[in-house]
Specification:
This protein is an alpha/beta fold. Helices cover 36% and strands 17% of the residues. The strands form two sheets. An eight-stranded mixed β-sheet has the order 1-11-10-9-5-6-7-8. A three-stranded parallel β-sheet has the order 3-2-4, with helices on both faces. Bound molecules: nicotinamide-adenine-dinucleotide.
Amino acid sequence: MSCKKVLASEVAVPFRQELKQIIQEKGIRPKLVGFLANDDPAAVMYANWTGKTCAETGVEFELRKVDKNSLEECVVEANEDKDIHGIMVYYPVFGGNQDQYIQNVVSPAKDVESLGHKYRYNMYHNIRYLDPEMSQKCIIPCTPLAVVKILEYVGVYNKILNYGDRLHGKTITVINRSEVVGRPLAALLANDGAKVFSVDVTGIQEFHRGQGLKLKKHEVYECDKTLEEVVGMSDVVITGVPVKSYKLPTSLLKDGVVALNFSTFKNFEDDVIDKASIYIPSVGKVTVAMLERNLIRLYDYQTRGTSEQI
Ligand code: NAD
């Protein structure tokens, strides 16, 4: 069986073209500010890359290096600055609860990464719009959203089914349950109808919507199945283990599986292509496209338009 390798750069193209077109046609210049309050070289690299990508699309990106003890005040100032449309902070800064506090200092109007309580609550509760008129969609965190868009692109989402139900009948394993990627991703997939096995170092949980509960939030259950069992029954396996030595044995995968890795490290073995029908080795370029997409949405909301077209 032949496997199709799908690169994030390929999936990102139509999104980036659409964003560029909207920016050009509307003659707008949305501005994103990134706050760097740690000395993480990976954050600097990511910021440089974000700046370059934004410049190509027509988004203004400014990196502000600040002392961690003045970060909160800098974020408050940016919240009030009408020329800034999106704010992101490179974490960790303090680590733990204080970082969570800073995430909630960012105004929901500018929370381009969707890390504050409002959007997170809405996502976990499957509340898709900010307003009763359903004119403003909620902001979804960039990497989980990037994975969803890639799964749509490769046809895992069944377009014949109703919106909100397009993963009905799919079984998906996500190996990572971090608050930044794995848990929100499991929730998004389950809210769209999938049965999701969420794996982390502490064990396995099952996320799924109740029978007949269309568009209602998913529920979570502790699961006593093994990794071997859940991977073997999954149509899609998603890995995000931040460890170089971690390799998911190809022998566990179902024939024809869709295999997607979002870890910086390759979590699948090289011979994954012998079992998978589709293999997506990384997602980074789609993540940045989603960051820009979220920014354009927030720009529209701030300027009282809607972004039905994106
Ligand atoms: P994290 O450390 O917060 O979480 C890691 C998760 O993996 C945890 O749930 C942990 O329990 C689980 N895990 C670790 N070892 C495991 C094992 N042996 N078996 C099962 N589960 C295991 O990390 P994170 O912030 O979620 O990032 C994970 C990876 O994804 C990193 O490599 C990071 O660079 C990458 N990442 C990529 C993007 C992108 O857009 N490309 C964005 C965010 C994170």
